[in-house]
Specification:
The structure is a homodimer. The first copy, chain A, has about 140 residues and is mainly alpha-helical. Chain A contains 8 helices and 2 strands, in the order αααββααααα. In chain A, strands 1-2 form a two-stranded antiparallel ribbon. Chain A binds a DNA duplex (30 and 30 nucleotides) through α3.
DNA sequence: TAAATAAAAGACAAAAAACTCTTTTATTAT
DNA sequence: ATAATAAAAGAGTTTTTTGTCTTTTATTTA
């Protein structure tokens, strides 16, 4: 198990890829994205449909169509992508899976996990989708399996 | 999705429960544990069999049998329980699921996740299984759903 | 306006995780 | 020794997640 679901991992990698690949204002097709991030094409298609409905990515059908992102979306925090796919359980849920866990009825690890969750949330809130373009362009970072 | 698998959540809650419930040197049966942590009894049985094989809990069959933990195990860090069930992927794996992710071929979030993973690992290494007994005895903390 | 293109949508299939039920084995107390 | 007890083990089922394949819809270019 990772921190994110597989679906969410693909979602994050795909928005990084789309952001990087369409910096010049172009669009990129599902096949190229799937290859670029080592994901199953049709599974990724579902994820992008979902992200599209939620306004994270844009798409156009037909010749020279494909996926892209507008400038305001590129500046959104990564937390928005995670929340769109995995929900906010990672930021708010109990580390031990207790639905009733709260300040007044805490699990034993309540305070410890509060810190962890805060770390994760803050990290994802302060990172924007587009800020990784530079390193991807330079080939310093990688999105393939 | 939580940080841990459901199996691991039950494992942690059960070791907390056993530690707390057998402080006086007694043993506690699977039914009482399952009730005490709101888990499916037979599913938990499998988990405890696994923890038993790995030396995290001890068990004796027959009348007045049940589960308990010896003093040295009670002082082990929670990280040992997590690693026994979920493995060390949480501490070492790539946040974006890339098997080839490394210092020389990092994913875009490599450094960010290094911090997160370190936080989680250190927290689980410095907490011992038995240190939560006090609050459980006082009824301050809770293990039930 | 017709053909080509590419995403959207729908319907499955496989694998993994979570959960259940029954039988067996070991231990203890009578 | 025997019966009662309780964990161990085995053999499933269900649900969720992940992945595949096909058909439909929208757009563009010729």
């Amino acid at each position: 198990m990772g921190i994110f679901s597989k679906t969410c991992e693909y979602a994050i990698r795909s928005v990084f890829f789309i952001a990087h690949r369409t910096e010049n204002g172009s669009r990129v097709g599902i096949k190229e994205i799937a290859t670029g991030i080592s994901s199953p094409e049709h599974f990724l298609a579902k994820i992008l449909q979902d992200l599209s409905k939620k306004g994270i990515v844009k798409s156009v059908k037909g010749p020279h169509g494909g996926f892209y992102m507008d400038e305001s979306t590129l500046q959104r925090p990564l937390a928005d992508v995670v929340e769109a796919i995995d929900g906010n359980g990672l930021f708010t849920g109990c580390g031990l899976g207790l639905v009733s866990c709260s300040e007044s009825k805490p699990c034993p690890l309540h305070n410890e996990f509060k810190v962890i969750r805060k770390n994760i949330h803050e990290m994802l809130l302060k990172t924007t989708i587009k800020e990784f373009n530079g390193d991807l362009n330079l080939g310093v970072t990688n999105l393939k399996k």
